[in-house]
């Protein structure tokens, strides 16, 4: 086991933490890698609605108010830390019972984005949950943290939703880009999907270069022990992938992630965001 190539599982106090842990355990078994459960406590100062927090109160009252708020904040922090320890202890036991051989946990207090940027070093896979049942016409709802994590990640990111289901059949949204070609090499060199069925799917009629890349990808994946096949379907990538997921019985989607800048995505939209908001299956985003 390579202890320097951990699976970093980001958990919170929602029911999604169990799902993230279960997928981290699945990945740990297949990769023979340690799991690190990360829970970040963000600092939010909450003030009572029936108190006057304006500058219109006297200096002595202001000092008493600040002392009281500081004490309340410290109490909330202590309570959140204890809740976090209990959460991580239960999830660590869950992972160990699921077959993960080495499980560590880390409780941090601060900014979640900065913490994840620091903690992903030394990891081989980042797993994060997305709450909510997406709709095929969904436009927003990913959440600030999730999109930031995926954009800033230097490792593959597995975004999971709803209940855990062990992956057996995988759909790879292949477009012939450098990201997906590198993704093929990454999957071929990893035991994560070895022995599973994987279908590479191109939306639209592939050109000669795309068809050549698709054929080469199948050969490479089959040689690595993955039951790979390829197909093409007419239509937009979002519609084609959504239809395939709805009818093909796939347990996981693989695709490239955010090849354009946040500004371009703001102006023209993002295929990654569109796809994530239109699927309910776990999505492995290649970086």
TrEMBL record:
Residues 5-160, 211-287 form the UspA domain. Pfam families: Usp. Transmembrane segments: none annotated. CDD domains: USP-like (cd00293). Belongs to the universal stress protein A family. This is Universal stress protein. It comes from Denitromonas halophila.
